[in-house]
Structure formats: structure tokens, C-alpha cells
Design a protein that fits this description.
alpha+beta, disordered C terminus, binds zinc ion
Length: 339
Amino acid sequence: MADIDELKKSAMGEINAAKDTAELGVLRAKFLGREKGEVTKFLRSLAGMSIEEKRTIGPKIQKIKVNIEHALVAHGKALKTEAAHETEGELSWMIPKIGHLHPITETVRMMNEHFRSMGYSVMDGPEIETDEYCFKRLNVPEDHPARDMQDTIYIEEPKFLLRTQTSSIEARVLEKYRPPFRIVCPGLSYRNEKANKSNHFIFNQYQLVVVEEKVSLKDLFGTITSLFRKLYGQDVVVRFRNKYYPEVEPGVGPDMQCFNCHGKGCGVCKGTGWIEMGGSGIIHPNVLSMAGIDPKKWMGFAFGLGLDRWVMARYNITDIRTLLGGNLAYQYYVNEGTL
Ligand SMILES: [Zn+2]
């Protein structure tokens, strides 16, 4: 039965070469069709054969019929999977990516994750604050210029205002929780400022507060440096300078070597080679006392950073207004006409 072996060979070849399911349908009719199918014709020819021939050839033809049936189904499945993948590919190419997380959100999440891994809790507080939590409990003297209307946006003078810093959350946490604790608080702050390239009346801050039995400046430097490395890589260069902030004693301000000129001096760093990245220090004993925490038993450090500036340094953004502008035309304005 050379013919039947030939038939099997050509059937398999044609089925595997079929490019779509329609072609497979034609091949099914060609080989297995009830009237004119080639395998059917062979089966019919059995009628004129001897019993011996029927016994040897009959099962062989049946087996070939099953093989062809299996080949048709298997190749059909393969074609469908292929088509599905192609459609998927086409669709993912055709559908434009719409939206992504805001760089601030992305950075805040990354920072929260970093500090959670070090045992910190993420906290929040009210944006409309009282003079007490925004200034008084942070050791800001009555005559401090920060309390001036020129800097602070008051809702109802002199008591209610929009918080000028996330340190107000620190004041609330110190009052509500008993040490030891480690917390971070991202949040919006407001100041009565005219928006320009580097300042905005709405801005994001990120506050860090640790109160434990014993802390040192070394712990503070280590914590801040770990954040710099997380966001800007291991090679980031940071320096700490003495600063005055009423809520800490001593106060230190971390500067990062300019991401744009690497210390040479440029427009972004105003020619200094360094960018101020926030304020920090050992929490003033007065601040702890006002919150009912014994400063003889507990110590703490705090760090407040202007988040917008950190994000700008990460993404090479040179105008703070870009972070709040959803208007593409505004982007062009921000980039000073580079269309
Ligand atoms: Zn620079």
C-alpha cells in the first residue's frame, strides 16, 4: 500500500503548511470529506478486497484517518494561539500609553518604602493648622519672621493658617505618641510667595522624626545619607553645614553636590556647586518638653526636606512650576521656547 503511505505523507505536509483555519477546513474536506475525501475513498475501496487484505489494510487506513484528524486539530490550535499573540502585539502597539505616576508620587512612595524598611511609620496631619502646632510647639518665637503675614497664608488671623511646613505634623506626633518612635510624613505646605522658577506657594515637604533614648548627629547623618544614596545612587556627594532652626539644637543643613555641574558651578546651583536640600538637627529640649516628653530621658532628631527640589534633582527639572503644570503649552513656556 504505497499509495496510502504517500497519502499520509502529503496530508501531514499540507496540514502543517496551512496558514489559517480556513485552509485547514479545505484540507479536512480534501482528506476526510464524507463523499470525496481521499481517505474515505481508500476506505470505500476496502469493499472490493479479500478478507485478509481487509484485516491488514483496514486498521492501517483507520489509523491514518485518526492521525490526520489529530494533525488538523493540533495545527488549528497552534494557529489560534499564534493569531492571539499577533492581535495582542498589534493592540499593545496601537493603544497609546496614557498617564503615569506623578514624579512626586513616585518619589514619595520610594522614600516611604525606604524608611518603612528601617522601622518608620508613615503619618499625615491637617493642612489647615493652628499657630500653636505650626509655630509655638516648634519653639518658634513670637516675633520670628516666619509668623509674619508676608510669609504665612492665614485662614483666620492669628489662629488658623495653612501649614507652612510639615514640622506641624511632628508637633502633633510628639504630643500624641510616646517614644520610642520613628516616623516620616510627606505632605503639602503653603507659603505666601510669588511663584518663580525655584519657589512656589504650594510645595511638597517630607518630614522625618525619630525619638529614642539616645540619638546622635552621627545617626542623623547616616539616615540622611542613606536617603541621598537611595535616590541619587552610591556616588552622591553630600556635605552638612551648621544652620539655625528654632526647633533643633544644633541645626544642620545637608547640601548635595550639584547634579547639573558636579560641583563646578552653574545656573542651577547659582554658581556654588552645591544645592541646599533641607534642614535638620537634634530636636530642641523645649520642643520635647512642650509635648510632655522628658528631655532628660529622651532625645530625637528631625529632618525636613523640600520634596520638590529632591524630585527636580532626580529628573533634571529646572523649573518648580513644571511639577504643578498640566498644560503642555506651559511646559513650552517653562522651557523658554524650545519647541
Ligand atoms: Zn551646578
